[in-house]
Structure formats: C-alpha cells, structure tokens
User: What shape does this take?
Amino acid sequence: MAGLPWENQSANLLIDGFYGGKLVNPETEENPVFYGFQLVDQGEHFVGGLSYPQWGIFAEDGTICLSNTK
Assistant: This one.
C-alpha cells in the first residue's frame, strides 16, 4: 500500500458512539482490525470499554468504512 489514504486529509468520524479507536496494522493489512472505546450504550449510559473488533475497508476514493465482518 503506497501511503495511507488519510495522510494528507483532516480526520473524519468513522463510527458514532466512540471516543477513540485505532486501526491495527493499516500499512500491512488489506482490512485492518479496528478497536474503539465505546462512549455510551443504547441507554446513553457511559461504557468506556473496548468495542468488539470491526474491520476497516478502504474504498477506491480513499474513504474508510467499518464492518463487523471481513
């Protein structure tokens, strides 16, 4: 992968309800795993714990989507 799609662009929100997260090994994985810190649950109660893994999918235009499956 020659350069990451977001290197020269401002940050974008990948998923609502999270206050931080990380794509693991985005330079070497076609669909890198994403872990985030969940902000609130469906009842709007603070969670603060790690999410279940999701996978990053890079679109041709350089945008990133998250999926529960590879």
User: Anything to note?
Assistant: The beta strands are 18-24, 33-38, 54-58, 64-67. The chain has a mean pLDDT of 81. The chain is about 0% helix and 30% strand.
